[in-house]
Write a structure and sequence with these properties.
4-stranded antiparallel sheet; 9 helices; flat; 5-stranded antiparallel sheet; 3 domains; alpha+beta
């Protein structure tokens, strides 16, 4: 009688007890995870679509694009948004904006280690804002001497500094203490005052007296004249003029010389950019439909059935968005623009029909896409409930599926415990059986030996 292998037998029987349940739970979890991945892919595509909607409905963007064309390069740059009125303007750049900068009247032998007063106050001002340094607190290395280098660092690192930069500039063997405004415009002039400077250190306070400083750059506004040289003067603290004309941003880059002809700026509809914006909307929608179709396909001979085929939530999203696209907004439909839906549910654009519409009705085009309670805002309202980070349709669906996976994980852990208990039981039983069989084999061997002797 042959002996048994208790470990092999215990492993096989314990595995048989739990294997079918393990396979069921693992297969279920795999299915749940596949659905989570599919929902995440559709959610990402929907977020991309929502992002495009936000760009089109934002205050700084629009479907209708304007262009700003300049008669000459080098003097101006310009951009026009959808609110800019078509027309022609002439600008003469009289002056560029600059920032205030000066070198203090410090001693000729100034160096980064030059000591400054160890007490007193220094107040720096810029356009009505100021901050004060207590000179007695600036000795950062604790060597008992406060240096001009430590003053420089203290100015630049002060949390109340409104925009004044300090630096030590070395030129022709001399070091200069320079203060600069980080802001252009004549209102942004730097000034310094000192108080309670100890006797014998009066030079420090006198160094910031305008009579003793060296002007390196004046605080100036940018000035342009509309209508050409001598025309309507417009000023800006920076070289960019944002509010001069609604919807138009102009930046001066170079000064015109007296007698030169100014730069002509022409604002008009940018047909190519407008069409591109509409095509971007169509592409974003079609990408969403492609993703939805990928995971909800009913399948066929050459196509695998989608993991979310027949899913009511996903189909509801597609249906609601499609319904909005078919709606009439103030008498205008997408079909009037040459935008139609193909047999596979995607949008298509008829270029000729679209061009004819927006050339005749640019305001209606913009209103359809960007107006209040119009198509874009309706689409945003439609997708918003699905994309909430908490209690959104997608987040709730995924949370539910992840909960099912967690419950299966707990069941698999219980099966592991069940397997171990069964294994231990079977191992004990087969070990005992094996011991008995070995004993029987030994006894039978004795009988065989006795019979041979007779």
């Amino acid at each position: 009688m042959s002996s048994l292998d208790p470990i092999t037998m215990a492993t096989q029987l314990a595995t048989y007890d739990v294997q079918s349940f393990q396979m069921r739970y693992q297969l279920q979890s795999k299915g749940y995870q596949t659905k989570i991945d599919a929902l995440s892919a559709i959610e990402t595509a929907l977020k991309d679509f929502e992002k495009k909607l936000g760009e089109m409905s934002g205050s700084d963007d629009s479907v209708l694009k304007n262009s700003a064309t300049l008669s000459q390069e080098g003097y101006l740059t310009a951009s026009a948004d959808s609110t800019a009125i078509a027309g022609t303007y002439q600008f003469f750049v009289k002056q560029l904006a600059s920032a205030h900068q000066f070198a203090a009247g410090m001693p000729k032998d100034l160096s980064s280690d030059t000591a400054i007063p160890a007490s007193g106050e220094m107040t720096l001002n810029l356009d009505g804002e100021s901050f004060t340094l207590d000179l007695s607190t600036l000795d950062s290395d604790g060597d008992g001497t406060t240096t001009i280098q430590e003053l420089t660092k203290a100015i630049n690192s002060d949390e109340n500094n409104p925009g004044i930069n300090a630096s030590l500039v070395r030129s022709n063997g001399e070091t200069h203490f320079v203060l600069s405004s980080s802001k252009t415009g004549e209102a942004n002039e730097v000034s310094v005052s000192t108080n309670n400077i100890p006797a014998g250190s009066e030079w420090f306070g006198q160094a910031f007296d305008p009579a003793n400083t060296t002007l390196l750059s004046s605080a100036k506004d940018a000035i342009i004249e509309m209508g050409g040289e001598g025309g309507l003067e417009v000023r800006s603290a920076t070289n960019t003029f944002e509010n001069m004309i609604d919807g138009l941003s102009v930046t001066a880059t170079k000064v015109h010389q007296s007698g030169e002809t100014g730069t002509t700026l022409t604002v008009g509809v940018d047909k190519a950019a407008t069409k591109e914006e509409v095509n971007n909307f169509i592409s974003a929608y079609n990408a969403l439909i492609d993703t939805i179709d990928k995971y909800t396909s009913s399948g066929g001979e050459d196509q695998q059935r989608g993991v979310l085929a027949g899913d009511a939530t996903v189909r509801s999203i597609e249906s609601q968005i499609s319904n909005v696209l078919r709606e009439d907004f103030d008498g205008i439909r997408l079909t009037d623009l040459g935008i139609t839906t193909s047999r596979d549910g995607k949008l298509e654009l008829d270029d000729d029909k679209f061009t004819a519409f927006y050339e005749a009705n640019p305001d209606k085009l913009n209103q359809l896409f960007s107006g209040d309670d119009q198509m874009i805002s309706r689409l945003e309202s439609t997708v918003e409930p699905y994309l909430k980070s908490s209690n959104g349709v997608f987040s709730n669906r995924k949370d539910s599926l992840e909960g099912s996976i967690e419950r299966n994980d707990l069941k698999l852990e219980a099966l592991e415990r069940k397997y171990q208990m069964a294994y231990d039981r079977y191992l004990k039983q087969f070990t005992q059986m094996n011991t008995i069989m070995n004993q029987m084999n030994s006894t039978m061997g004795l009988f065989g030996s006795w019979q041979g002797e007779n």
